[in-house]
Amino acid sequence: MLTTPDADFDTLTRQLQWPAYFVKDYVKSLTTSRGSVAKNADEIREVLKLIAHYRGTIEGGVSVRRFESFVLDTERRYFVLNGKVFSADDVVPEQVEAIARCVNTPFYSIDVVKNTDGELRLVEIGDGQVSDVKEWDIEKFVAMFG
């Protein structure tokens, strides 16, 4: 759900009644030890206040999602180059292919993770300027451009 920093989070949480909320602005989540998980409206406001404090502003708006538990060590990074999806193990799930068909840019990354129900969830679509290549062998990554 997309909203604004001044939204009525008390009403929102009463309507949604989720066990927990993942809160971020349009750009990034809170990466301090507090993290971006909130259990109620007061904690949502706390997360937003900390994002604004550490980053200077809330960028774009606010995203509130139902918090899900993910299975450790299941996050995978895929790269898309000129419409073709590449993976570290040469296996590309259909969900990743479907995501790639929706994005029209020459190069980017797609990160997905499995939740505790075994469903793949999109974590992030990045501009390809990632801090690491995760499970990728560097030679395989470079060969993608060959």
Kindly describe this structure.
The chain folds into 2 domains: 2-66, Dna Ligase, domain 1 (2-Layer Sandwich); 76-143, no CATH class. The chain is of the alpha+beta class and 146 residues long. It has a 4-stranded antiparallel beta sheet. The chain starts with a strand and ends with a helix. It has helices at residues 9-16, 41-55, 94-102, 138-143, and strands at residues 2-3, 21-25, 37-38, 62-66, 76-81, 84-86, 107-114, 120-126. Helix 1 crosses helix 2. The mean pLDDT is 94.
SSE run: EHEEHEEEHEEH
What fraction of residues sit in β-strands? 25-35%
Describe the global form: elongated
Helix content: 25-40%
Q: Roughly what is the average pLDDT, rounded to an integer?
A: 94
Strand order of the largest sheet: 1-4-2-3
Short description:
This protein has helices at 9-16, 41-55, 94-102, 138-143; strands spanning 2-3, 21-25, 37-38, 62-66, 76-81, 84-86, 107-114, 120-126. With 146 residues, the protein is of the alpha+beta class.
Explain the layout of strands and helices.
Layout: E1 2-3, H1 9-16, E2 21-25, E3 37-38, H2 41-55, E4 62-66, E5 76-81, E6 84-86, H3 94-102, E7 107-114, E8 120-126, H4 138-143
Antiparallel strand pairs: 1-4, 2-3, 2-4, 5-6, 5-7, 7-8
List keywords for this structure.
146 residues, alpha+beta, 2 domains, four-stranded antiparallel sheet, 4 helices, 8 strands
